[in-house]
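Table S2 (continued). Query chain:
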Amino acid sequence: MSAIPAEDEQSSRAPGVEAAASPLLGLLVRRLDGVLDELHAMSLGALGDGDVARLLDVATAASSRVTSLQCRSAAEADRRRLSDEVGARHTAAWLAHRSRSTRAEAARLTGLATSLEHDRHAPVAEVLAAGRLRVEQAQVIVEAVDALPSRVDAAIREQARDHLLAAAADHDAKALRQLGKRILDVVAPEVGECHEARLLEQEESRAFAGVELTLVDDGHGRCHGRFVVLSHVGAMLKRHLLALANPARHTEAELRDESGEWKPLRRRLGEAFMEYVERYPADHTPQTAGVNATVVVTMTLEQLLGEHATALLDDGTRMTAGQARRLACEAGIIPAVLGTSSQPLDLGRAARLYTKAQRIAMGLRDGGCTARGCETTASGCHAHHDDLWSRGGLTDLARGRLLCPAHHRLAHDSRYVVTVHADNTITFARRQ
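Corresponding output:
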């Protein structure tokens, strides 16, 4: 008995129940499902390397061809307003619900489908249907051609489209997007330069309007955040952090995590970001009411000298006294040390910073980190007071030294005894 209902059976279906597939569509879908079933049942382990690569190529091309069918179907559904049958606001909402895809994904597909129906994008639709173009590339080409100025005639648009289609054989969607921004330099140089400038101006204006930064303290010693900045600012920040995270600046122990595994790049960039903020020059911070925008850490003298003590930041959060002692040497904070009657004993943070000339002299004298066995160069080191500020130390060149970030932390860790040797190097020994 045939699985395809008779015509009279289809016409008597209940309201809201879709008709079964037509005989032709049903046959083609069964053939397609059968081929896919056979391919999925095939043991890939039995294939040679060449066949695995070929199968991947075929699957990639088939994905493009299926997407082309999706676009054509979505465009036809939009033309017939099938979304009206279920009261959806538009085809994208109808497709999202029907396909269980996100609204954004459905909107992108229906938008591309509508664009590909236009005569000027017909060649793009043909190449996508043939499997020689990826859907991201098709989207980029359509957007680039549609973004050309209104004064550009149809002939130039066709040249731009055809040039990008040819380039798609050797460039991915990201590279195509860059080519698309300057496509007029190729097909119409006389208008290309001003068009690119206009596009960049619009892009920068949109980007600047969306700049934002959010920071949230989770109450467990961590701060979470996200930001959106202009592309060149992100590139500059990444370049700075990659330089700080450069493995050449760190020992093998610093590059391994608590379990002994190599730290992933995201962890090293996070540590670099902390160093970037902590080492920002206090004399360059902006001022509010004549006071530099620094963080004040408040503690008693006993807490500052104690091995197991905490310090209070001016925003209500806390840190260990050891962390406060380390930051007091280099970072942009103001230690406000209080006596027994809560009277300030010292607020001299800026005066305790080593000057640029002193840092240069330290670099010439020390050559780098003065901890024995450490090879960190001078540019990667902090300036440290041998006589801790908390014990009355002064910012004198003779009583200062260069230490890498890791050894600087150890120098302020009460669990270690620091020994200064005759050659001006230091060693650490864990207290018994």
